[in-house]
Amino acid sequence: MAKIVGMEVLDVRFPTSRELDGSDAMNPDPDYSAAYVVLHTDGGPDGYGLAFTIGRGNDVQAAAIRALEPHVVGLDVPTDAAALGALSRALVGDSQLRWLGPEKGVAHMAIGAVVNAAWDLAARIAGLPVWRFAAGMSPEELVSLVDFRYLSDALTEQEALDILRAAEPGRAERIAKIERDGYRAYSTSPGWLGYSDAKLARLAEQAVADGFEMIKLKVGGDLEDDVRRMKIARETVGADIRVAVDANQRWDVSSAIAWMTELAPYDPYWIEEPTSPDDVLGHAAIAKALAPIRVATGEHVQNRVVFKQLLQAGAISVLQLDAARVGGFNENLAILLLAAKFDVPVCPHAGGVGLCELVRHLSMFDFAAVSGSDADRSIEWVDHLHEHFTDPAVVTGGRYLAPSAPGFSARMHDATLRRFTFPDGPEWTEIDSE
Amino acid sequence: MAKIVGMEVLDVRFPTSRELDGSDAMNPDPDYSAAYVVLHTDGGPDGYGLAFTIGRGNDVQAAAIRALEPHVVGLDVPTDAAALGALSRALVGDSQLRWLGPEKGVAHMAIGAVVNAAWDLAARIAGLPVWRFAAGMSPEELVSLVDFRYLSDALTEQEALDILRAAEPGRAERIAKIERDGYRAYSTSPGWLGYSDAKLARLAEQAVADGFEMIKLKVGGDLEDDVRRMKIARETVGADIRVAVDANQRWDVSSAIAWMTELAPYDPYWIEEPTSPDDVLGHAAIAKALAPIRVATGEHVQNRVVFKQLLQAGAISVLQLDAARVGGFNENLAILLLAAKFDVPVCPHAGGVGLCELVRHLSMFDFAAVSGSDADRSIEWVDHLHEHFTDPAVVTGGRYLAPSAPGFSARMHDATLRRFTFPDGPEWTEIDSE
């Protein structure tokens, strides 16, 4: 049997702060980056994963991934749910490393990168994209992947099994539908804070012409600007297109409520990250005050325990999981099951580096095998940096096409890795010498 | 004016897993460790701080501290609240590094280590121990140190100012009382899971003889063992000594309630860390079910936002802040103010490496200048590894003596640093060659 014989970790950074793409109220100048991991094997394909960061500290993230090497190198190449469950448990269960979280932050994102790389590897060997590979597993296999610790007051193993069994009929039809029609996307491209009003209007108009049913604006910098931009967006797209807004954690509870009350006349579909991602009770208070405006969060929610509480408290109407924030596919499966239990739609966070590539697998798997529904669900789309991936996300007519190449789609081109490795790649050394 | 001219970060590890000291239900074999930081100056004293970990991953923690160097090197040496507030804001406010948390895990503990090193430096220059240095600041200066973001629904700046002003009368008397009588300690030394019943009984008896009014047992490994150990402890110490228990996050909500119901006949004073430190709602459910047994947590609570919610939800009756888990003195001041607002006693977590040394400053400062009370408050005491510190914590008659040496007491002896540096110190190279 083939073995994992090495782990390679690269610090890859894109100088996105040179433009204002990606600018928002909390992140004025991100350099979109990836701590990129390759699991080398002694036969067959390698496995690829990544943790997304926004620049400084990507080296710390890379160090955290390297700390997991002793758990990975020497393993048989994982090919099934049993092996993928065992790997996740070994990584999460390292009692010394656990102190660094537990299950949060740099150390937890590192686990996510490695677990996702292992899924990539297993799916490549199976010759399937991850979403189809996972959708081929039985409910029992899927449940065996999940760590139910700290979840049982909201979701038991039996309840999870019931959810998955209820979605078994129709799996094949839904897979066929995904392969035919893709999965709904929404566009964040018009709404970065750094853009002029004219650029906002032009991009919003273009998004509608391109088939998107929802766009999203960044807010939280200046109230007067936000009211004007929201008005422009609404007037540009008309009443039938959804306009969501995203404050990127900028507010306290009372300011979130006051600010959004000013934007309410323009019918915002959701307010995303109104406050700290750690503040379950704060989100609940905001949701109660602002209904029927939905509250959404998730890209910075650290693990399944916080998602559990957001759902228990009725704090969110939209759950925005992230492919690279939590402990990889396994924990995202737990989160999809929680969302299904509470009947809250999942609209994943994407953008950044590789997040669009990864997260489409999760939404498509969810539709095929977990929630069985795509109602009120869509995946964020930012048309940015996809050219660096060997199996890039493609959106046409406002829909993500189904990935068909084997794996989890995190692999970058060799030329990209050479050029953007920090601090020694030519993209960075040439800048420094200018 | 003197400047900070360099930052040195060391990976220091003690091979505590060779004994069973420190063993509990989640942490069977910790190697108590510190990512140790020195702020070198070009005149006057240097500043010392640390983040505590339990072995593997201490290198990742050290890397996270190093990532903060550009914010620190070149600064004027901080001497007052204005400079200490500005440094904390600069570290927390780095928008790229913030992505690694935000404000949690490895990246946040790194901020804590550096902020505490800056306090050490400022207090050394003032010629005072940190608790007295801080207790000499005005309410306005203290409030200027606090980041109120995400707190205003529970604690406003004005309310914080009112709390601090209310504690101004009597500061001098309370400082004198601390210097005369010290501060109440409780002992965890009898209760590690790895100890035999005979050792438990002997150490419990010794603790009472030594003047402690409370001891603590680790629980959560095996129910039958825990019932037997709790019975031994209660019979040994009698009805008047408090016996707290600590599950180190081992349980889900329902198992916490069921397990503690079995221990209830032996009158446990508090149950510490019954479940995930992230689970505010879980702690609230446990507290409601187990009253009048108190619920305590904090050593793994990631930041002020989670403490805020634990207090808002009535989830804890005892708040166990940790000197090295959150963003340093500044965030711990926010947490002390929240506890005072909600009238919940603070009983800090200690033990590990240097935590007893650091945290006594926080409790003594709290009594002097924030809550103004020491009722139902005590500091954990584990008599372990203190010999490595230049200003070690000393407990006699069940009370922490007031530290009087200038600084925050995190400095280790040079010989310790030479011997225990990982992986190149002789403590580790000699083991490897055995």
Automatic annotation (TrEMBL), chains A, B:
Its EC top class is: lyase
- What's the superkingdom here? Bacteria
Keywords from UniProt, A to Z, are: Lyase, Magnesium, Metal-binding
**What's the catalysed reaction?**
L-fuconate = 2-dehydro-3-deoxy-L-fuconate + H2O
Provide the species name: Amycolatopsis thailandensis
| Gene Ontology MF term list | L-fuconate dehydratase activity; magnesium ion binding
The Mandelate racemase/muconate lactonizing enzyme C-terminal domain extends over 197-293
This protein's cofactor list reads: Mg(2+)
Question: Under which EC number(s) is this enzyme classified?
Answer: 4.2.1.68
User: Which terms does the UniProt entry file under GO BP?
Assistant: amino acid catabolic process; carbohydrate catabolic process
Q: One Pfam match, by short name? A: MR_MLE_C
Quote the protein name from its UniProt record: L-fuconate dehydratase
